[in-house]
Amino acid sequence: MDSLFPESYEASRARFIRDFELLRPKWADSRLESIPLKTDSSLSIDYAWAEPRKKEKLIIITTAEHGIEGYVGSAMLKIFMDEFAPRLNPENTGLLLVHAINPWGMKNNRKVNENSVDLNRNFVYGKFDTEINPDFKTLGYLFTPQRPARSFFMENLSFWGRIIRAIVTSGISRVSTAALLGQHHTPKGFYYGGSRHEDVTQITMGLYRKALEEYDTVIQMDMHTGYGPRDQMSIIIPPVDPISSKEAVEKFNYPLVQKINPEEFYAINGDMGEYYYLLRNESFPQKKIFVCGFEFGTFGDSLLARIRSLRAMIFENQLNWHGAVNEKSARVIRQEFSELYFPAEDKWREKAASDCRRAFEGILAAYNISTKMS
Q1: Strand locations in 92-202, DSSP E?
Q2: Which overall architecture, per CATH, does domain 2-126+198-298+344-366 show?
Q3: pTM for this model (two decimals)
Q4: Is the N or C terminus of the chain more exposed, i.e. has fewer CB atoms within 10 Å?
Q5: Which one, of 22, 47, 23, 21, lies nearest residue 34 by Cα?
Q6: Domain range annotation of the chain
Q7: Which residues of the chain have pLDDT under 70?
Protein backbone atom coordinates (compact mmCIF):
# COMPACT_ATOMS: atom_id res chain seq x y z
CA MET A 1 0.00 0.00 0.00
CA ASP A 2 2.89 2.38 0.72
CA SER A 3 3.96 2.27 -2.94
CA LEU A 4 0.58 3.74 -3.90
CA PHE A 5 1.10 6.82 -1.71
CA PRO A 6 4.13 8.92 -2.72
CA GLU A 7 6.55 10.28 -0.15
CA SER A 8 7.38 13.54 -1.91
CA TYR A 9 6.05 16.00 -4.46
CA GLU A 10 8.94 15.14 -6.78
CA ALA A 11 8.21 11.40 -6.63
CA SER A 12 4.52 12.00 -7.26
CA ARG A 13 5.18 14.25 -10.25
CA ALA A 14 7.70 11.85 -11.79
CA ARG A 15 5.25 8.96 -11.43
CA PHE A 16 2.42 10.96 -12.99
CA ILE A 17 4.53 11.81 -16.03
CA ARG A 18 5.73 8.23 -16.40
CA ASP A 19 2.24 6.74 -16.07
CA PHE A 20 0.76 9.15 -18.59
CA GLU A 21 3.38 8.17 -21.15
CA LEU A 22 1.99 4.63 -20.90
CA LEU A 23 -1.53 5.88 -21.63
CA ARG A 24 -0.74 8.24 -24.48
CA PRO A 25 -0.78 5.77 -27.40
CA LYS A 26 -4.41 4.83 -26.67
CA TRP A 27 -5.76 8.26 -27.67
CA ALA A 28 -5.69 10.01 -31.02
CA ASP A 29 -4.18 13.15 -29.52
CA SER A 30 -2.37 13.24 -26.20
CA ARG A 31 0.00 15.73 -24.63
CA LEU A 32 1.46 16.71 -21.31
CA GLU A 33 1.80 20.38 -20.44
CA SER A 34 3.70 21.91 -17.52
CA ILE A 35 3.58 25.49 -16.27
CA PRO A 36 6.32 26.36 -13.76
CA LEU A 37 5.46 28.61 -10.84
CA LYS A 38 6.71 32.18 -11.23
CA THR A 39 8.00 32.06 -7.65
CA ASP A 40 9.84 28.73 -7.99
CA SER A 41 10.56 27.21 -11.40
CA SER A 42 11.33 23.82 -9.83
CA LEU A 43 7.59 23.49 -9.08
CA SER A 44 4.90 23.26 -11.73
CA ILE A 45 1.25 22.60 -12.33
CA ASP A 46 1.22 19.63 -14.71
CA TYR A 47 -1.78 18.50 -16.71
CA ALA A 48 -2.32 15.84 -19.32
CA TRP A 49 -4.82 15.87 -22.18
CA ALA A 50 -5.87 12.62 -23.84
CA GLU A 51 -8.31 13.58 -26.58
CA PRO A 52 -10.59 11.28 -28.59
CA ARG A 53 -11.51 11.55 -32.26
CA LYS A 54 -15.06 12.60 -31.33
CA LYS A 55 -15.09 15.00 -28.38
CA GLU A 56 -18.25 13.85 -26.66
CA LYS A 57 -17.29 13.10 -23.06
CA LEU A 58 -14.41 14.34 -20.91
CA ILE A 59 -13.32 13.04 -17.51
CA ILE A 60 -11.33 15.44 -15.34
CA ILE A 61 -9.37 14.32 -12.28
CA THR A 62 -7.79 17.07 -10.16
CA THR A 63 -5.47 16.80 -7.17
CA ALA A 64 -3.68 18.94 -4.58
CA GLU A 65 -5.87 22.01 -4.68
CA HIS A 66 -5.03 21.89 -0.98
CA GLY A 67 -1.35 21.06 -1.36
CA ILE A 68 -0.76 18.53 1.43
CA GLU A 69 -3.89 16.65 0.36
CA GLY A 70 -2.13 15.89 -2.92
CA TYR A 71 -0.39 12.81 -1.53
CA VAL A 72 -3.66 10.97 -1.10
CA GLY A 73 -4.88 12.58 -4.32
CA SER A 74 -1.84 11.23 -6.14
CA ALA A 75 -2.67 7.71 -5.00
CA MET A 76 -6.24 8.00 -6.25
CA LEU A 77 -5.08 9.49 -9.54
CA LYS A 78 -2.78 6.50 -10.02
CA ILE A 79 -5.67 4.11 -9.32
CA PHE A 80 -7.66 5.85 -12.04
CA MET A 81 -4.78 5.86 -14.52
CA ASP A 82 -3.86 2.21 -13.88
CA GLU A 83 -7.29 0.61 -13.51
CA PHE A 84 -9.94 2.81 -15.16
CA ALA A 85 -8.37 4.87 -17.94
CA PRO A 86 -7.32 1.77 -19.95
CA ARG A 87 -10.97 0.64 -19.99
CA LEU A 88 -12.35 3.85 -21.51
CA ASN A 89 -13.45 4.24 -25.10
CA PRO A 90 -10.81 6.43 -26.79
CA GLU A 91 -13.14 7.13 -29.72
CA ASN A 92 -15.47 9.45 -27.78
CA THR A 93 -14.11 9.84 -24.23
CA GLY A 94 -11.18 12.05 -23.31
CA LEU A 95 -9.17 12.81 -20.20
CA LEU A 96 -7.85 15.91 -18.48
CA LEU A 97 -5.66 14.85 -15.57
CA VAL A 98 -4.27 17.60 -13.36
CA HIS A 99 -1.37 16.85 -11.04
CA ALA A 100 -0.93 19.29 -8.17
CA ILE A 101 -3.01 22.41 -8.72
CA ASN A 102 -1.04 23.72 -5.72
CA PRO A 103 2.48 22.30 -6.12
CA TRP A 104 4.02 24.67 -3.55
CA GLY A 105 1.60 23.51 -0.87
CA MET A 106 2.21 19.86 -1.75
CA LYS A 107 5.99 20.30 -1.65
CA ASN A 108 5.89 22.12 1.69
CA ASN A 109 3.13 20.07 3.34
CA ARG A 110 0.73 23.01 3.65
CA LYS A 111 -2.85 23.47 2.50
CA VAL A 112 -2.29 26.98 1.17
CA ASN A 113 -0.15 28.19 -1.71
CA GLU A 114 2.99 30.31 -1.57
CA ASN A 115 0.86 33.42 -0.97
CA SER A 116 -0.94 31.80 1.98
CA VAL A 117 -4.16 31.58 -0.05
CA ASP A 118 -6.55 28.66 0.26
CA LEU A 119 -7.30 27.89 -3.37
CA ASN A 120 -10.67 26.31 -2.63
CA ARG A 121 -11.79 29.70 -1.33
CA ASN A 122 -10.19 31.49 -4.31
CA PHE A 123 -12.50 30.31 -7.13
CA VAL A 124 -14.74 33.31 -6.61
CA TYR A 125 -17.25 33.89 -9.40
CA GLY A 126 -17.44 37.67 -9.53
CA LYS A 127 -16.25 40.10 -6.86
CA PHE A 128 -14.04 39.28 -3.90
CA ASP A 129 -16.15 40.44 -0.97
CA THR A 130 -14.25 41.41 2.19
CA GLU A 131 -17.54 41.61 4.10
CA ILE A 132 -18.12 37.86 3.86
CA ASN A 133 -17.75 35.96 7.15
CA PRO A 134 -17.39 38.78 9.72
CA ASP A 135 -17.60 36.16 12.47
CA PHE A 136 -14.04 35.09 11.62
CA LYS A 137 -12.87 38.47 12.95
CA THR A 138 -15.22 38.30 15.92
CA LEU A 139 -13.72 34.94 16.88
CA GLY A 140 -10.16 36.05 16.19
CA TYR A 141 -9.19 35.29 19.80
CA LEU A 142 -9.88 31.61 18.97
CA PHE A 143 -8.70 31.40 15.37
CA THR A 144 -5.61 33.62 15.22
CA PRO A 145 -3.55 33.76 18.45
CA GLN A 146 -0.84 36.39 18.04
CA ARG A 147 2.18 34.72 19.65
CA PRO A 148 4.65 31.87 19.15
CA ALA A 149 3.30 28.40 19.89
CA ARG A 150 4.30 27.17 23.31
CA SER A 151 4.48 23.50 24.30
CA PHE A 152 1.63 21.44 22.89
CA PHE A 153 0.34 20.90 26.44
CA MET A 154 0.16 24.62 27.18
CA GLU A 155 -1.28 25.48 23.78
CA ASN A 156 -3.90 22.78 24.20
CA LEU A 157 -4.97 24.18 27.59
CA SER A 158 -5.31 27.64 26.08
CA PHE A 159 -7.18 26.31 23.06
CA TRP A 160 -9.78 24.47 25.14
CA GLY A 161 -10.42 27.57 27.20
CA ARG A 162 -10.96 29.59 24.03
CA ILE A 163 -13.12 27.01 22.24
CA ILE A 164 -15.39 26.59 25.24
CA ARG A 165 -15.77 30.36 25.48
CA ALA A 166 -16.57 30.56 21.75
CA ILE A 167 -19.16 27.76 21.86
CA VAL A 168 -20.86 29.23 24.93
CA THR A 169 -21.01 32.78 23.55
CA SER A 170 -21.59 32.06 19.84
CA GLY A 171 -22.82 28.47 19.54
CA ILE A 172 -21.16 25.52 17.82
CA SER A 173 -22.90 26.12 14.48
CA ARG A 174 -21.71 29.71 14.25
CA VAL A 175 -18.18 28.77 15.25
CA SER A 176 -18.10 26.00 12.65
CA THR A 177 -19.38 28.23 9.86
CA ALA A 178 -16.94 31.00 10.73
CA ALA A 179 -14.04 28.54 10.69
CA LEU A 180 -14.86 26.77 7.41
CA LEU A 181 -16.66 29.23 5.13
CA GLY A 182 -13.57 31.14 4.01
CA GLN A 183 -12.79 34.84 4.25
CA HIS A 184 -11.13 37.65 2.29
CA HIS A 185 -10.25 40.08 5.08
CA THR A 186 -7.60 38.39 7.26
CA PRO A 187 -4.55 37.39 5.18
CA LYS A 188 -2.87 35.77 8.18
CA GLY A 189 -5.93 33.70 9.00
CA PHE A 190 -6.64 30.19 7.71
CA TYR A 191 -9.07 29.59 4.84
CA TYR A 192 -8.05 32.97 3.47
CA GLY A 193 -9.44 33.20 -0.07
CA GLY A 194 -7.21 36.04 -1.26
CA SER A 195 -8.08 39.35 -2.90
CA ARG A 196 -7.65 38.23 -6.53
CA HIS A 197 -7.51 35.00 -8.49
CA GLU A 198 -4.16 33.32 -7.94
CA ASP A 199 -2.07 32.37 -10.98
CA VAL A 200 -2.78 28.63 -10.65
CA THR A 201 -6.47 29.41 -10.15
CA GLN A 202 -6.49 31.29 -13.46
CA ILE A 203 -4.69 28.41 -15.18
CA THR A 204 -7.26 25.94 -13.86
CA MET A 205 -10.15 28.20 -14.86
CA GLY A 206 -8.73 28.29 -18.38
CA LEU A 207 -8.64 24.50 -18.53
CA TYR A 208 -12.25 24.28 -17.38
CA ARG A 209 -13.41 26.77 -19.99
CA LYS A 210 -11.56 24.90 -22.74
CA ALA A 211 -13.19 21.65 -21.64
CA LEU A 212 -16.67 23.15 -21.88
CA GLU A 213 -15.90 24.74 -25.23
CA GLU A 214 -14.87 21.43 -26.78
CA TYR A 215 -16.88 18.65 -25.08
CA ASP A 216 -20.60 17.93 -24.77
CA THR A 217 -20.38 16.30 -21.33
CA VAL A 218 -17.80 17.01 -18.63
CA ILE A 219 -17.38 14.98 -15.44
CA GLN A 220 -14.91 16.17 -12.85
CA MET A 221 -13.71 14.42 -9.69
CA ASP A 222 -11.53 16.44 -7.30
CA MET A 223 -9.52 14.77 -4.51
CA HIS A 224 -9.59 16.06 -0.90
CA THR A 225 -8.87 14.79 2.61
CA GLY A 226 -9.69 15.81 6.15
CA TYR A 227 -13.43 16.18 6.64
CA GLY A 228 -16.10 13.55 7.30
CA PRO A 229 -16.20 10.07 8.84
CA ARG A 230 -12.86 8.29 9.04
CA ASP A 231 -14.22 4.97 7.77
CA GLN A 232 -16.13 6.14 4.71
CA MET A 233 -15.14 8.51 1.93
CA SER A 234 -17.81 11.10 1.08
CA ILE A 235 -18.77 12.20 -2.42
CA ILE A 236 -19.47 15.92 -2.06
CA ILE A 237 -21.51 17.92 -4.58
CA PRO A 238 -21.87 21.71 -4.95
CA PRO A 239 -25.27 23.06 -3.88
CA VAL A 240 -26.01 24.38 -7.38
CA ASP A 241 -26.34 20.84 -8.74
CA PRO A 242 -30.07 20.01 -8.64
CA ILE A 243 -29.56 16.38 -7.62
CA SER A 244 -30.31 15.56 -3.99
CA SER A 245 -27.99 13.51 -1.81
CA LYS A 246 -30.51 10.67 -1.67
CA GLU A 247 -30.87 10.63 -5.44
CA ALA A 248 -27.07 10.68 -5.85
CA VAL A 249 -26.63 7.71 -3.49
CA GLU A 250 -28.91 5.67 -5.74
CA LYS A 251 -27.52 7.03 -9.00
CA PHE A 252 -23.89 6.31 -8.12
CA ASN A 253 -24.50 3.18 -6.03
CA TYR A 254 -22.39 4.79 -3.30
CA PRO A 255 -23.33 4.92 0.40
CA LEU A 256 -22.36 8.49 1.39
CA VAL A 257 -23.09 11.55 -0.74
CA GLN A 258 -23.41 15.06 0.71
CA LYS A 259 -24.25 18.48 -0.68
CA ILE A 260 -21.89 21.33 0.23
CA ASN A 261 -24.22 23.17 2.57
CA PRO A 262 -24.47 23.69 6.35
CA GLU A 263 -27.13 21.00 6.74
CA GLU A 264 -25.12 18.15 5.23
CA PHE A 265 -21.45 19.14 4.90
CA TYR A 266 -20.53 22.79 5.38
CA ALA A 267 -20.81 25.96 3.32
CA ILE A 268 -17.85 27.18 1.25
CA ASN A 269 -17.37 30.57 -0.40
CA GLY A 270 -15.09 30.42 -3.46
CA ASP A 271 -15.42 26.67 -4.00
CA MET A 272 -13.91 25.32 -7.21
CA GLY A 273 -16.79 22.99 -8.00
CA GLU A 274 -19.43 25.67 -7.61
CA TYR A 275 -17.36 27.96 -9.86
CA TYR A 276 -17.47 25.36 -12.61
CA TYR A 277 -21.25 25.07 -12.44
CA LEU A 278 -21.67 28.86 -12.50
CA LEU A 279 -19.36 29.11 -15.52
CA ARG A 280 -21.38 26.45 -17.31
CA ASN A 281 -24.70 28.06 -16.43
CA GLU A 282 -23.67 31.47 -17.71
CA SER A 283 -21.55 30.67 -20.76
CA PHE A 284 -22.30 27.07 -21.82
CA PRO A 285 -25.90 26.30 -20.76
CA GLN A 286 -26.29 23.60 -23.39
CA LYS A 287 -23.42 21.52 -22.01
CA LYS A 288 -23.83 18.72 -19.46
CA ILE A 289 -21.66 18.79 -16.37
CA PHE A 290 -21.17 16.91 -13.13
CA VAL A 291 -18.56 18.08 -10.61
CA CYS A 292 -17.86 16.43 -7.28
CA GLY A 293 -15.20 16.03 -4.65
CA PHE A 294 -13.94 12.85 -3.08
CA GLU A 295 -13.51 13.75 0.60
CA PHE A 296 -11.51 11.21 2.60
CA GLY A 297 -12.25 11.79 6.29
CA THR A 298 -9.37 11.40 8.73
CA PHE A 299 -10.03 12.35 12.37
CA GLY A 300 -13.75 11.56 12.09
CA ASP A 301 -17.01 13.49 12.21
CA SER A 302 -17.85 13.52 15.92
CA LEU A 303 -17.88 16.87 17.73
CA LEU A 304 -14.58 16.07 19.46
CA ALA A 305 -13.01 15.03 16.15
CA ARG A 306 -14.15 18.24 14.47
CA ILE A 307 -12.72 20.28 17.35
CA ARG A 308 -9.44 18.38 17.02
CA SER A 309 -9.37 19.23 13.30
CA LEU A 310 -9.97 22.90 14.05
CA ARG A 311 -7.21 22.83 16.65
CA ALA A 312 -4.77 21.38 14.12
CA MET A 313 -5.64 24.15 11.64
CA ILE A 314 -5.24 26.90 14.26
CA PHE A 315 -1.94 25.58 15.58
CA GLU A 316 -0.42 25.08 12.11
CA ASN A 317 -1.43 28.58 11.04
CA GLN A 318 -0.06 30.01 14.29
CA LEU A 319 3.21 28.15 13.75
CA ASN A 320 3.52 29.52 10.22
CA TRP A 321 3.08 33.17 11.20
CA HIS A 322 4.60 33.29 14.68
CA GLY A 323 6.86 30.26 15.03
CA ALA A 324 7.21 28.15 18.16
CA VAL A 325 9.20 28.42 21.37
CA ASN A 326 11.15 25.28 20.47
CA GLU A 327 11.52 22.68 17.75
CA LYS A 328 9.74 19.97 19.74
CA SER A 329 6.56 22.02 19.84
CA ALA A 330 6.83 22.75 16.12
CA ARG A 331 7.37 19.07 15.32
CA VAL A 332 4.28 17.96 17.28
CA ILE A 333 2.14 20.58 15.56
CA ARG A 334 3.36 19.55 12.11
CA GLN A 335 2.79 15.87 12.87
CA GLU A 336 -0.79 16.48 13.99
CA PHE A 337 -1.43 18.55 10.86
CA SER A 338 0.02 15.81 8.67
CA GLU A 339 -2.25 13.20 10.27
CA LEU A 340 -5.24 15.40 9.53
CA TYR A 341 -4.56 15.37 5.78
CA PHE A 342 -2.27 12.40 5.10
CA PRO A 343 -2.81 9.62 7.65
CA ALA A 344 -0.01 7.07 8.00
CA GLU A 345 -2.18 4.11 9.07
CA ASP A 346 -2.20 1.28 6.52
CA LYS A 347 -5.79 0.34 7.36
CA TRP A 348 -6.97 3.88 6.61
CA ARG A 349 -5.08 3.97 3.31
CA GLU A 350 -6.47 0.60 2.21
CA LYS A 351 -10.06 1.69 2.93
CA ALA A 352 -9.53 5.01 1.16
CA ALA A 353 -8.35 3.21 -1.97
CA SER A 354 -11.29 0.79 -1.82
CA ASP A 355 -13.82 3.62 -1.44
CA CYS A 356 -12.24 5.50 -4.32
CA ARG A 357 -12.53 2.52 -6.64
CA ARG A 358 -16.20 2.10 -5.76
CA ALA A 359 -16.89 5.80 -6.38
CA PHE A 360 -15.10 5.74 -9.75
CA GLU A 361 -17.12 2.70 -10.80
CA GLY A 362 -20.42 4.20 -9.72
CA ILE A 363 -19.94 7.60 -11.34
CA LEU A 364 -18.66 6.24 -14.65
CA ALA A 365 -21.53 3.75 -14.83
CA ALA A 366 -24.11 6.43 -14.00
CA TYR A 367 -22.97 8.55 -16.94
CA ASN A 368 -22.69 5.63 -19.35
CA ILE A 369 -18.95 5.95 -19.66
CA SER A 370 -17.72 2.79 -21.35
CA THR A 371 -15.47 0.76 -19.07
CA LYS A 372 -15.18 -2.37 -21.16
CA MET A 373 -11.73 -3.83 -21.46
CA SER A 374 -9.95 -2.88 -24.68
Answers
A1: 93-99
A2: 3-Layer(aba) Sandwich (3.40)
A3: 0.95
A4: C
A5: 47
A6: 2-126+198-298+344-366, 135-180+303-338
A7: 1-2, 370-374
